[in-house]
Every structure is written in structure tokens, then in C-alpha cells.
Hints:
The structure holds 2 protein chains of 2 kinds. By secondary structure, chain A is mainly α. Chain A has 9 helices and no strands. In chain A, α3 packs antiparallel against α4, α4 (85-123) runs antiparallel to α6 and α4 (85-123) packs antiparallel against α9 (224-255). The N and C termini of chain A lie far apart (45 Å). Chain B is α/β, with parallel strands linked by helices. Chain B has a single domain, classed as 3-Layer(aba) Sandwich (Rossmann fold), CATH 3.40.50. The interface between A and B is medium-sized, with 16 and 26 residues.
Amino acid sequence: MNFLAPIGRVFLSFLATIGRLAIFTGQALGSAWHPPYYPRNILRQMIEIGYYSLPVVGLTAIFTGAVLALQSYSGFSRFSAEGSIAIVVVLSITRELGPVLAGLMVAGRIGAAFAAEIGTMRVTEQIDALTTLSTNPMKYLVFPRLLAGVLMMPCLVLLADIIGVMGGYLLSIHKLGFAPEPYINNTFEFLEAKDVISGLVKAAVFGFIITLMGCYHGYHSGRGAQGVGTATTNAVVSSSILILLSNYLITELFFAV
Amino acid sequence: MTLIVPKISVRDVHKAFGSNVVLDGSTLDVAKGESLVIIGGSGTGKSVLLKCVLGLLRPDSGKIEVDGQNVIGLNGADKMAYMGRIGMLFQGAALFDSLKVWENVAFGLMQGKGTPKKLAREIALEKLNDVGLAPRVADLMPAELSGGMQKRVGLARAVAGDPEIIFFDEPTTGLDPIMADVINDLIVECTREKGITTMTITHDMASAKKIATSVAMIYEGKIIWRGDAGEIYDSGNAYVDQFVHGRAQGPISFGQGQAQHEVQKA
């Protein structure tokens, strides 16, 4: 029966990881109730996540919107449905591509940065030093990042929505020869609040996932440069997968037939 | 006869990582104002013992008391209060690299004790002056400093909160002999006159001789010898003799057991 042992081992270590992650999350959120609060840390992380991710997210959105318009045009023109391009672009962007692509880009940027920074702090004993200076590292390092992620990702995605729709608009007007006014009317005629809100809810969840994975893997980083490298890789990979998984679950929640 | 409560009391502390036993019943007392240096080879459990007393690691069994009060498994406010009474100089100084030098020194004051920024900066400059650093260093980033200067800043940070106990983790490792001696002098200066109790782990005998009032030797997770600093070169203990004279031959073998401890540390 020895061949069962590795299966059990993998399963047990999977459960142990879930448990550690749950405790980590609980400690991070639980630390936030009592003062001191660290508004400066929260603000700095909000700038890091929200402001410095703007170029990456904006570029992703504008090209995605343009490609969407181009692809739907070449597909829809086969059955004379060019009029639907505007609504296809706006629905795809707000419901799916805005939050998911922004989430993946931010996972690469922020997840990696957090894991590397906190991992280096772990390796160089700076986290232990925080504790010896009467500062709870969960509260000082982790919670501000989680909060900033949850607050800033919806803002980023709202901007990505606008820029993405604009990308589709620019391409349709200048390349495909649509008239501006009908295109804009088409865009907003069938758009519902739910389409945008579901995307923003996704964004908040993704923001939590990205920052949590970055902090968790950094916090439990192994020793040395290799440990930090592994932590960074794990943070990006796990947050990307969890983004795609939770994206499905949230979509199911909002739009299940 | 009155019973004197030791400042730090470690009783039969065990700590294992998985199947690897690191501390195997360590017992140790440190009196108030004493400067105890714990010597021992790499991987003999020095760091783990220090981290248990600091509260960064939780021992599997045993008692650790400071002033007769248990310090194992403290949480929340109790833990922060305990941390407010101690200082720690880390091996690599562990300065926060996103903060300026003076902010590092004042960190415990500002974040832990809520001292106003202006006053905290004044205290930080004073503490930097105590370790021989000019005020212009205060506004540099830690990465701009040499290893020796980082250690000094770390020392200034450790003493900034006026702690009752300071822990030193290999304070001279990685420094040239002259800088090591400067740090040793500073440690003595910053602690002995103020009656601060200190616990140092090192394998640098020059450092041990300079800063210790008493010495303990740890081997395979147990304290195997403890005595006054003066007795160290005629301890009559074969293990201590081998270590302080740095001989490859002797009762301490760097074989299987050593390798296992190294694996745990990695």
C-alpha cells in the first residue's frame, strides 16, 4: 500500500497550507481592530498599488478594447451584426476582461513586489526586529497592504473599463468607419449597473487575493536569495490561479441562469 | 537567606523542529546587571535559545521567566509590554531599509511608545551620538552605511527605548577586528554603566572576553558549563577548553549531529 503514502502526504500538506493561510488571514484582519493604526503605511501602499499600476493597467485596457472591437468586427461582419460591436466591447470589458486582465497585471507587479519585499525583510530579520520594537508585523506590514489592495483594485478596474471602452471606440471610429454618436449610444443602451458592479466586486476580491498571496508567501519565505525567489514565484502563480478560479465563482454568483 | 529572583530564568527548555532536537533541556539563570555570554559552535542551539527567550520562538516545553513572570506564549498587549522592556541587536543589524537612520533608531519610540516625532528625533540623535555617529548620518538610508556603521545604528536602536535587558546576536560577526573591538567597547559602555542585563551569543572569543561578566557554553542543546568570565581559560571542562582554544581535536566532534543541526538552520 506504499503507493498511497505520497498521495496522502500531498493531500495533508495541502490541508496544512490552507490552515496556515486561514490563520495568517485571521491574524492579519484581527490585528486591525485596536490602535495603533498606520495611516501612513496604508496611504503609501494605496499609492503603490493604485497610482503606480496606472500605466500598466491603462495600456492593457486600451489594447484589449481595440482588439475586441477588431475581432468582433471581423467575426460579426460575416452575418451583418456590426451594430452589436459596441455592446460586445463594453460587456466584455466591464464584466470580464477589465477585472481579470487588470488583476493579472497587478498580480505580476504587486504580488511579486510584496513577496520580494516582505521575504527580504524576513530573511534579514527585519520582521523579528519589528516585533522586538513592540510593533506587530501583521498590523504594520500585512494589514495596510490588504486594505490598500481591496480599496484600490476597484478604482483601477473602473479606470480600465473606461479606457478599454475608449480603445474599442477609437478603433471603431478611426479604423472601421463607425459614426461616433450611434456607437456611443449602442455602448450605453444595453449596459446595466450589474455589469459594472460585478466587475468591481471581482476587482475587490482580486485585490485581496493578490495582496494576501504576496504577503503570505513573503512572510513565510525560505532562507536566502533562493527562498525569496521561490516566494516571489509562488505569490504570482498562486494569485493568478486564484484570480481565475474566483473569477469563475463570482461570475456564477452574479449571472447564473 | 533571602531568595533572589534572577532577571532571566530558563528552566529545562526543549525545542525541536520536526524530528531534529535543537534545545534538549537548557537551564540557565541570568542575574540583574549581569552580562552573560553564551558560547558554542554553529548550530548548537544558541540562536534558538535566544529567540525562545525573546519570544520569537515558542519552546515545546520548559519555563522561561523574566523577573519571575512567565514570558512564553505572550500575546497582544502583554507581548508588546514585554518587548518594550527588552532590546535586541540582530546579527545583520536588521535595519529597516525603507526608513532613514534616525527613523530606525526612533522606531520603537514612535511606533511602540507613541513618542512625538520631534522628541523621538532628538533622542535618536543623542543615541547615535552615544555610539559615535555624527548627526549627518541620521538622514542617510541604512544601505548607504558600512557594516560597522549599521551595527552601531542597530545598537543605538536597541538601547533607544531604555530597555532592562538587551540581547546581542553575534555582535561582531562580519566586522574587521578593529571595528569588532569598537562595537565591544560600545556594548560595554552602553550597558554596564546603566545596569542593563545582557545576554549575548557569539563564537568570537575576543568579544566574549571583553563583554562578559560570566560565560555559559551550550553544546547539543544543553548548557554544559557556566562560570565567571575569568575562569574560562581554566574551566577544567574538556568541551570548553576545546572551544576557547579553537582545537579541531577534542570531545566536540563535527560529525553527524552537527550536520543535522545545520540542516535545521537552513
